[in-house]
Amino acid sequence: MTSISENTPNTAQQAEPVDTVSGAVRIGMGLVEFIVTIAVMTASVALAIDSMLPALSNIGQSFGVANANDAQLVIGIFFLGFGFSQIFFGSLSDAFGRRVVLLGGLAFFTLSSFAASQAASFEALLVLRFIQGIGAAAVRITTMAIVRDCFGGREMARVMSYVMIVFMIVPIVAPSLGQLVIVYADWHWIFILIGLIGLALFLLARTRMSESLPAEERLPLSVGAILSGFRTVLTNRITCGYMIGLTLFTAVICAYIVSVQQIFGEIYGLADWLPIAFAGTAGGIAVANFANGYFVRSFGMRRISHAALIMFTLVAAVGYVVSLAGTPAFIVSYMMFSVLLMFSP
After folding, report:
1. What is the pTM of this model?
2. Range 20-221 has CATH code 1.20.1250.20
């Protein structure tokens, strides 16, 4: 292979920045196509969660679920599969490449979606949702790894900001999409729709995306290497502290998504308005993400994260005290939820 120095006539040319398109070309795409593809694949995870919110009560009634709270397991069990399996896919994609793990994840995600639409029992539906969460985790991990393979430093941050712009649209519109489906059909068609989207993404990845991690850059898969990675993370005080903090923040978001249908729909009687109410809080998160990009450049990530943690704790404490007097007015609860989610990462 001809070296760069042999093709570079002078130092001025060496100093020229690399075109951002070159990173996307690594997997055979233009920059715009790359950003849209990664964003849509990442957003498929949010779609599989948020589109189900308006259908939870319908699913519970369809299977004769005795305890209304059990319908929330349709969301919770997905999170369990999604969260538990992520620790494996990073090592697998490092060893075998991003593309094969991504295609496998999309296959799991798609097939489990179609199978869930035909589930004969609530228990079978939960098993399939767990499998769907595993597939979604593979998609999430590999898409983020592909971005890191193709871009670095400021260019990676720039690309990820564009990806997040597209990604944040999905939590805003997904509940309305689910509501639209159950108005004209039944909840089974939500899974069919998710399956069709997964199939389209599988075909897109199969035909348009090349491998982003060359064989010579892959890492051997071994128990020792995995345990060494865990040891490095768990013995670093700062890394471990931020990891715990991020985990707890993520737990808050998961708890909100799992319970929002009952809070808005049953406690406040706003079942028909759930998609709009949820879109408002999701929109707040999107605004906070955009603002965070500006504030981080001005004040640094450490200050911003610590300030957000303090404000989150204070607002949560106020909300707890207010709730001791009884169920707060909807506007009070809604503002509390919105502010807390905006302070979440």
Report:
1. 0.82
2. yes
